[in-house]
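Section 5: illustrative case.
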């Protein structure tokens, strides 16, 4: 039994196949380690792409609202840029309580 296994392992075709697989997985320019890194990088870039597409969608909707609705434009300016009308006081209320849902 041991001799049979030794004959299989020392077979020139088996050794050639093992050497070829080792070369492909570790030494080739498209080795397995590099392919895994590139696959992870590609997945990360796809997630970023989807994030930016979603952001573009939200910003497009907001732009459309701001161009067509003056009340929405005023609300946006007051909230985002703290703009106010003449003879008007603005008080900022900042919530300092910790959010329990996070």
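Designed sequence:
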């Amino acid at each position: 039994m041991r001799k049979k296994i030794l004959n299989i392992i020392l077979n020139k075709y088996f050794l050639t196949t093992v050497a070829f697989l080792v070369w492909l997985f570790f030494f080739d320019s498209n080795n397995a380690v590099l392919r895994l890194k590139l696959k992870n990088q590609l997945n990360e870039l796809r997630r970023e792409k989807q994030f930016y597409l979603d952001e573009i969608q939200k910003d497009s909707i907001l732009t459309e609202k701001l161009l067509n609705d003056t009340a929405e434009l005023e609300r946006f300016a007051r909230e985002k840029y703290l703009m106010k009308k003449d003879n008007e006081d603005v008080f900022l209320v900042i919530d300092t309580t910790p959010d329990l849902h996070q």
